[in-house]
Amino acid sequence: MAKLKIGIIGIGNMGSSHARYLINNEVPGAELTAVCDTNPERLRWAKEALSDRLQTYDNDNEFFASSGIEAVIIATPHYDHSPLAIKAFKQGLHVMSEKPAGVYTKQVREMNEAAKASGKVFGIMYNQRTNPLYQKLRDLVQSGELGEIKRTNWIITNWYRPQSYYNSGGWRATWEGEGGGVLLNQDPHQLDLWQWTCGMMPKRVRAFCGFGKYHDIEVEDDVTAYVEYENGATGVFVTSTGDAPGTNRYEISADKGKAVIENGKLTFYRLRQSEREFNREYQGGFGEPECWKIDVPIVGKATDHKGITTNWVNAIQNGTALLAPGEEGIKGLEISNAMHLSAWTDDWVDLPINEDLYYSKLQERIKASTFQKKHTGNRTLNVEGTH
Amino acid sequence: MAKLKIGIIGIGNMGSSHARYLINNEVPGAELTAVCDTNPERLRWAKEALSDRLQTYDNDNEFFASSGIEAVIIATPHYDHSPLAIKAFKQGLHVMSEKPAGVYTKQVREMNEAAKASGKVFGIMYNQRTNPLYQKLRDLVQSGELGEIKRTNWIITNWYRPQSYYNSGGWRATWEGEGGGVLLNQDPHQLDLWQWTCGMMPKRVRAFCGFGKYHDIEVEDDVTAYVEYENGATGVFVTSTGDAPGTNRYEISADKGKAVIENGKLTFYRLRQSEREFNREYQGGFGEPECWKIDVPIVGKATDHKGITTNWVNAIQNGTALLAPGEEGIKGLEISNAMHLSAWTDDWVDLPINEDLYYSKLQERIKASTFQKKHTGNRTLNVEGTH
């Protein structure tokens, strides 16, 4: 079979990282043939550092129409993910979008419709779905081992970023450039894993955001959110780029026990009798169901970005099921949008959110922005081990 | 020196526990000489199980006036703590109140005033303050080792109670009998330790309560609360009697690192450079301050209820400083009242709370209660290892 011709649009931090494993032929059946970026410096870098046979483009129309690529990885700033994906689908290309799927759900819904109409393979770079820890947690929920979920609690504050990170790119951490802060840039993986492992979305959200609390930025760098689910369960999500050292601890409490992911381990506290049943039957006053602490074996390793790209290439060439279908990108984004909206309105937000209201509130912030970044020009940072 | 004559009013679960160590002469310089309870069965039990020389009383007026006691431990249902303490202070008695200090702060403020006017020694049974784990955490904050606090997060869901616990006493878990659920009965220790270890009270609270969510009761058995402090820090407190197995994990994130208490251990993640300073100075984009993980040595053991009583007796006899002054009981209660009020009004609550509003909202609930408990009479439960 001929190799799948892949192009990358956006050769910044993440785009360069995808380019490297592709150029090294680490994804079987695929080859990187073209890249596109508006910054000529990055195109020069691609020729020099990757391959001088790479085609380079400085505008997306030409790139999509003339480069001969069959599939594209979109790794531009967030706002462009959806419009570029829509263009690519119209050109008959398969699409892999970096996270987040977009900045507001209205935009992402249009992208999902374009994907459906095209019949092409649409993936999203939720590389954390390749992590066997979260796969196993999802398995505990889906298989019924955990029972009905009562509570979710994720403290994900280990996204520490110093001010120099924010100063490294003019688009970073602005309403106009990213459409948000930690929720849009750092947390899309966790927001996705949260709903993916539980198999349920919140039905309403009450969130509290600190905007520029720890950094000289206009968007949120600190969030605490409370959510309620349809089945009565509640949840908490705490995130920040201002805590050092941060915490990454995710707990699900359920009818048949509790699962905790922390320090790269999954511990299952398994009840031998359902709590609800014990509650009804036990007559002793004090007491609780017998509980076994289980270190759940985790097999394999996260295949990460390369794994997601490989899975997408296999889906294109062999019809393999996608681990992270692009259409699911809207879920985590909707939670993120709901958190923003709740903080902005200082009120509850029901899901599905009012997309038009969100869009207009976001535009208000973009228009009202008087934020001037003291940045030192666009720097490309090495992201190895950070995403 | 003659032994301090102590009486106990309320010989239920907790009162019996205090009586046992006193009757065994485990508190130097003190002796249990009288007990009071409205339930004749409990008085018979006291004579039989403790000592037939014990004076027994079935009404508090006579008990305070004629028993010859110098000091009293109040271990009645919550509502009676404040009024009984006020009576006792007027009789010139030293007072140790079980937690909570009362049910609403209006009542407790009056008790504190009576204590002050009497000049007697007033303690509260915050036995968890004798726990060297929490003492050490407080030390890390007070000594400046942790630096300015940014975030507190306490998941204290290991208060599991089955329905039979609630059925064991008619007063349990009713607005009229306890004035609340998990916040009033199980959490007073943690609500106190939360503010005591941090050395600060929230300035506003947004809380979400499930009332009778996991049990056939009318009060809250599940709470998630978000708080904000004067210095800009935020906090989360999650508690429940419906989770099995529960979690007890308390984290403080601060400018010079992070402290975590879990599984009986205190871990201090110590930054070698203040995060705020690093944030300003570091120019590398990605990166964070050097961090040392430290297992903080914990010396000694919690002396618990007996320790608090001994400390109180020493304060009476030798002027030793109280570890848990009674006047501080209002702090945790105010947080608890604020959480209720926030849930009832579905809105923010500023501290100090509107005491009259709280009182009237509580009365509404008492009046509106149609709750009929399917209880099997008042049972005295063995509380060893549970409080």
UniProtKB/TrEMBL annotation, chains A, B:
Which GO terms fall under molecular function for this chain's record? nucleotide binding
Species annotation: Pullulanibacillus pueri
Ranges for domain Gfo/Idh/MocA-like oxidoreductase N-terminal come to: 4-124
Q: Which domain of life is it from?
A: Bacteria
Gene3D superfamilies under this entry? Dihydrodipicolinate Reductase, domain 2, NAD(P)-binding Rossmann-like Domain
Q: Which residues form the GFO/IDH/MocA-like oxidoreductase domain?
A: 134-259
Query: What is this protein's name?
Result: Oxidoreductase
